[in-house]
Amino acid sequence: MAKNVRFGIIGAGMISYFHAKAIQDAEGAELVSVMSPRRPSLDKFLAVHQVRDYDNLGSFLADPELDAVAIATPTGLHRDTAVPAAKAKKHVLCEKPLDINPAKAQEIIDACRDNGVVLAPIFQYRFNSAAILVKRAINAGRFGKLLMANARIKWYRPQSYYDSGAWRGTWELDGGGCLMNQSIHAIDLFLHFAGRPVEVYGYTATAAHTRIEVEDNAVAVVRFDNGAFGVIESSTACEPGWPLEVEISGVGGTARIKADALDKWEFNTPDPAMDAEAAKLMETPAANSGASDPKAISSLGHQKIVEAMVKAIRNGENSVIGGAEAKLPIELICGIYEAVRTGKPAKLS
Q: Which domains are delineated in the chain?
């Protein structure tokens, strides 16, 4: 029987608890350590999870019993922990997004590839049954020519959320606002379905929060290389907060995901087996989506990624989600920010 992949977590804030539960629940994984330079956060984590603790990255990575790291730091610090981890030959599970800009994300991708370790970005919505079925339908040609994609993320975060951490709502460590932090899951799914974007234009505003540098309200229009168009609506200012929606339409049909559930499935030409699978999924209600509370999410998606990562490690693979795909949402979001700054559509290479 294959031995467990032994994980350590870097960072001891809110999201670290979801990583810890996912690792503990995942088949083939084991949580052995945690690292944080912040002693109060570390002690709080250790009260729940009795594992080895470190306050120094070098000592943490030097542990010969450590196989993989889960990065749960503020976004702008992801590269600074992921690259040393990869160089220490530790596999990398990285919370979304990989980092705050494409260049820093690429450094993580390169370091993992060059050192032969697995990179697993946390885009758990891809692993939901609804998303898997929609992607299968796209690959099977059921949508025909793709025409339109929509991502709607009308979430709500109170001012206290941004006040709870000095890094929140900053360009340096958050990398942006509702687009880069909250909406990136839906944007990743939007791109996963619709393809490669080639041009984007958008508007952003800080509409309802104070003491933050970044946007809490945004809209963008996207043109894809396959001729489809897309619209992104993103907010952390829309009370009371609704579950995210991602919709894809083609000449042959339309499907929509709401939170992690299949909400719409209509096609011109039937496929009895696939349609029966869709009907069964539509009977399953959506899980709590975190639309108004970042803690009100399930760790199951994280668990599925951990299990996929374990499988990739055992099979000698390089990534769970390809580096170029993991970087694409960052490129698009940074393109929106560029379009806002310049007042012109941003071209995406």
A: 5-124+298-321 (3.40.50.720), 126-295+330-347 (3.30.360.10)
